[in-house]
Design brief:
alpha+beta, two-stranded antiparallel ribbon, 24 helices, 62% helix, Putative ankyrin repeat protein, coiled coil, transmembrane helix, CorA_MIT, transmembrane
Length: 781
């Protein structure tokens, strides 16, 4: 903010206005052009979060035409002031490093303020030590003049001390900004070191330990928490990377150290969540849960690990000279997050534009995705008469601020030739891919749920009581669906924040166009001519009519006779560009809203999936509780039968007395007559001994049962082994018998065939009449 004040003051050749708190409260201001442009309602009055956290500092969206003429009232102001947020991006590492740096500087400033307050308190106490103490025990009531004099002296001394302090704290309007005290440097540095040891190092060390646990590596650290590298080349590369990172971020760190706690303060860059939830002290966890962060970060589980024994996993079909493509893609990914930056713009006297917008941490002037770079490229590549007025250039600036994530070509070239990757994330593609992945997972989850319900249906319709515990466990586990709902809710929320920023841009743009139209067309005749020309010529805007044509037109167009052709062309060209930019902004909002609608439909589907799963789990639990419901109904009926007796006993003292009298008398008489009471009196065993005896007896019974069980197991095991041996022996004997029978059967068949042959021979000879012929049934005698 101090730079903007200094730039505007130098433009008019004046000094910066005095913005002291007393003057701001009394509404005092200098009568200069700079003071009019930077008055309270148009500058510091629009600052939000001046005394709160650093991430809550921003200028409220604002656009208004303002007069810069101090000596007269200007009916048609020629200057415009505009504040507007816009979307950009940053690497996650740089964001986290500078977030820690900002927290350290804020801590140092708080400690310094406490020390200054303590020193001021000591000075006030020292000043009051010279005052005479009032004797409250014996006040001198008879001398009112002495009390009045003491009161006046006290008031005058307090007034002088306050005046001296104000003069010492109030800088001169014509003087330069005072430099920081040299003595405060070492003190602030020591405070920063203490805070670094207290909080910063703890956070960084915790992050490093978690990182080492995730990747499963064991890296040695020295006393300064630097990684010990065994190979000299590795140490050289790490030192070179650390040196390069320190060189690129040195300028931004010095800028934060000098102006972060300055008056007026510096506005650090804010993440998407910090811009919307500005009351949060820290958004570190939410920033690492952004959709863009997840899309540009490779999970640790996807990295290929190396083993000295087995080598690289997943590199079986990878040639050594080509390398692993997946490893190259994973290692080249850089984690990025979406940021919300601010545009401050002043148009001075229709001739000059002063703009203020941040750049990425550590980025140089060749940053392709930077707003300033894109504006210079667009103006340099434009047509000769693309910018006819300073307001056309302002429209280009507004368009480039809003077009960061919607220009697909900005990531691959710089306008002249192909360049290296600029690391700018493709935000819309990342959101579309994230929504598609969740939709696919939702479809898979629905398929699993239908399979579970089909299995449950078979169990319900079976005649036997089936076991549904396998179905109940996955139905009661809602963690997968809960993760899906969390992710899709984050997507819907981030799209809503981005739509909010774009709609704010559209509102500020409308106000800017209205103010510029009043500046270019104070009488309104050009607007009327433009609208009529747009209607009659189907959108083609012509130059101002000639004098002969104007004479034949209506009286509303006669005012244009005194205006020159350049003014008409300037207005028409601005109007065309303004309408095109408004249409672009509306299209960008429509793209984001379409993504939000798709994400919301997916979120509704995930919610329906959770409801169906819970309903199915309730059905399974109800079906399993059917056997218990009958028993509970029985006990309920029994309890109702005892309800009357219970109420009678509890409400009537006579009934309780009668019952207790007969119960005590009968039980005591039974114990005495049976000898139980006498036996208890003669028993010398105490209660502790009885307890130990019971434990001893039960322990012996348990040991005996264990021994019998072990014996039975041993006998059973032996019996099984004997059965196995007998089975093997029987199998062997059966094989031998089978072979023997086969041999005997062959021998008997051979003998029978020989006998048959001899018998037949004898029968044929006729020596044996008792033998008959052999037929189909066999040999008959």
């Amino acid at each position: 903010m101090a730079w903007a004040e200094e730039a505007i003051a130098r433009y008019f050749g004046q000094s910066r206005p005095d913005f002291h708190a007393v003057n701001r409260k009394l509404q005092k201001q200098d009568k200069t052009e700079t003071a009019l442009l930077l008055k309270e309602s148009h500058w510091r009055g629009q600052l939000h979060g001046e005394k709160t956290a650093a991430n809550s500092r921003f200028m409220r969206p604002f656009c208004e035409a303002i007069s810069s003429t101090p000596d007269k009232v200007e009916h048609n102001p020629k200057s415009v002031v505009l504040f507007m947020p816009f979307l950009h991006w940053e690497t996650s590492r740089q964001r986290e490093r500078f977030a820690q740096e900002i927290s350290h500087l804020i801590y140092n400033e708080k400690q310094r303020s406490k020390e200054l307050e303590l020193e001021a308190k000591k000075r006030r106490q020292a000043d009051r030590s010279s005052l005479t103490k009032c004797n409250t025990k014996n006040p001198n009531k008879s001398d009112p003049d002495s009390r009045l004099l003491r009161f006046k002296a006290l008031i005058s001394r307090a007034f002088m001390v306050n005046k001296d302090q104000q003069q010492a704290a109030m800088p001169s309007p014509n003087s330069e900004e005072p430099e920081a005290d040299d003595t405060a440097g070492p003190r602030r540095y020591s405070l920063g070191q203490r805070h670094l040891r207290a909080t910063g190092r703890t956070l960084t060390l915790e992050t490093a330990v978690q990182l080492l646990k995730r990747i499963g590596s064991y890296l040695e650290m020295d006393q300064n928490r630097r990684i010990k590298v065994k190979h000299p080349l590795g140490q050289l590369l790490i030192d070179a990377a650390r040196l390069f990172e320190g060189m690129t971020s040195y300028r931004d760190k010095k800028l934060l150290e000098k102006f972060l706690c300055h008056d007026p303060p510096l506005h650090p860059r804010r993440t998407l969540d910090q811009a919307y939830y500005w009351t949060l002290d820290t958004s570190r966890t939410r920033d690492k849960d952004q959709v863009i962060y997840r899309a540009t970060t490779t999970p640790f589980g996807k990295f290929h690990s190396f083993s000295p024994d087995k080598g690289w996993e997943g590199h079986d079909n990878v040639k050594e000279e080509e390398g692993c493509r997946e490893c190259r893609e994973n290692i080249r990914k850089v984690s990025r997050v979406v940021m919300v930056d601010q545009l401050w713009m002043w148009i001075l006297d229709k001739q000059t534009i002063v703009t203020c917008f941040p750049k990425r941490y550590g980025a140089n002037k060749n940053d392709i995705s930077g707003v300033h770079k894109s504006i210079r490229l667009r103006v340099g590549q434009g047509r000769p008469e693309q910018v006819k007025s300073v307001f056309d250039l302002a429209l280009i600036i507004l368009d480039e601020c809003s077009n960061t994530f919607f220009d697909r070509t900005r990531d691959s070239h710089d306008g002249y030739h192909r360049t290296t990757h600029s690391k700018q994330p493709q935000v819309l593609e990342a959101f579309s891919e994230a929504i598609g992945n969740i939709s696919y997972k939702q479809t898979v989850a629905f398929g699993r749920l239908w399979r579970w319900t089909e299995r449950a249906r078979k169990v319900y319709r079976s005649s036997l009581y089936g076991n549904s515990s396998e179905l109940q466990v996955p139905l009661l586990d809602i963690n997968p669906e809960g993760e899906l709902e969390k992710e899709i809710k984050d997507i819907v929320e981030e799209l809503g924040i981005m739509i909010y920023v774009q709609k704010t841009h559209r509102d500020v743009l409308k106000q800017f166009i209205t103010n510029v139209e009043h500046i270019l067309d104070p009488t309104g005749c050009q607007g009327l001519r433009y609208s009529r020309g747009l209607n009659t010529n189907h959108g083609h805007i012509h130059r101002c009519p000639s004098s002969g044509d104007v004479a034949s037109n209506s009286s509303s167009q006669t005012a244009c006779q005194d205006q020159n052709t350049d003014a008409c062309d300037t207005y028409d060209w601005f109007k065309i560009n303004a309408e095109e930019l408004t249409a672009k902004v509306n299209d960008r909002i429509e793209q984001l809203e379409e993504l939000q609608r798709s994400a919301q439909n997916t979120a509704d589907g995930v919610k329906d999936l959770l409801e169906l799963k819970q309903q199915q789990a309730s059905v399974v639990q109800a079906w399993q509780s059917l056997p218990l419901s009958f028993m509970s109904s029985v006990f309920v009926s029994i309890s109702f039968s005892f309800l009357a007796v219970t109420l009678l006993v509890s409400l009537s003292t006579w009934v309780r007395a009668i019952i207790w009298h007969y119960y005590t008398r009968l039980v005591t008489e039974a114990c005495v007559r049976t000898g139980i009471y006498g036996w208890s009196l003669n028993m010398d065993m105490p209660s502790r001994k009885l307890y130990e005896n019971a434990i001893e007896i039960t322990t012996k019974l348990k040991d005996k049962a264990k021994e019998e069980t072990l014996k039975k197991r041993i006998e059973k095991r032996k019996a099984n082994e004997e059965k196995k041996e007998k089975k093997t022996e029987n199998a062997n004997t059966d094989d031998d018998d089978a072979h023997g029978k086969a041999r005997s059967r062959g021998e008997s068949q051979g003998a029978n065939s020989g006998i048959r042959m001899r018998i037949l021979n004898r029968a044929n000879d006729g020596n044996h009449p008792g033998l008959a012929e052999q037929g189909e049934g066999g040999l008959r005698v």
